[in-house]
Amino acid sequence: MNILFIGPPGSGKGTQSKRLQDRFGLVHLSTGDMFREAITRQTQVGMKAKGFMDRGEYVPDSVVIDLIRDRLSAPDCKQGFILDGFPRTEPQAEALDGLLAGMGMKLDAIFQFDVAKRVLVERLSSRRVCRNCGSTVSQDQVESVGAECSKDSAKKCDFYQRSDDAPEVVGRRIEVYENQTAPIVGFYSKKPGFLKVDADQQPDAVYGILERALGPA
Ligand code: ADP
After folding, report:
1. Ligand 1 interacting residues, C-beta cut-off 6 A
2. Residue 171 Cα to ligand 1 middle (Å)
3. Least confident range of 133-142, 144-153, 202-211
4. Cβ atoms within 10 A of the Cβ of 122, count?
5. Nearest of 188, 176, 195 to residue 97 by alpha carbon
6. Per-residue model confidence as pLDDT tens digits over 144-157
């Protein structure tokens, strides 16, 4: 099963990806995570992406498309995947169509995450991410969360604030989404398997909607 998540930053795509990944045995393909990893490893892709990401802008299409082409052709993607954060522009959407057709694959479900802008700003500005396992909590939960880190159960999560979640960058990211990504929602809304999800709800409620739409694992 191949799933596409489309929605603004802070709409909960990453949170739901992690849950569906475990439930359905899918590979989570987050271009944002791939870029952050590339930056940490100081690869060429990472160097190209860093400046754009720090400003809250999109990495050039050619860089993103090359990255996803390589990743989608890896054998583990045959078991099914969740695309989270790609495509974000019209050329990326066209490239994805071509890539999938070339590999004899298709998207089985397309979920649009719908959340009001005011809520997004609040969520992103207070978001903290675990350096090791990538799970997210809001700032006021950092102290109370005693959860074991899913990467290393002997440790607690090590939360930090992503540099692009700084309040001065958050507004720019939402603006870039509205200008460049919102227009491709119309393209996907006509495809089979499309569902608009009210994502201004608790994660469990959103997950319930996705699970019902996907049917039994
Ligand atoms: P969010 O969805 O919370 O904005 P991501 O982790 O998905 O966060 O992405 C972080 C940043 O990575 C984006 O703001 C952008 O700079 C870059 N990025 C990720 N995916 C893409 C993409 N498909 N096209 C262009 N840039 C991307």
Report:
1. 9-10, 30-32, 35, 52-53, 56-59, 64, 85-86, 88, 92, 164, 173
2. 14
3. 144-153
4. 14
5. 188
6. 766 678 777 778 88
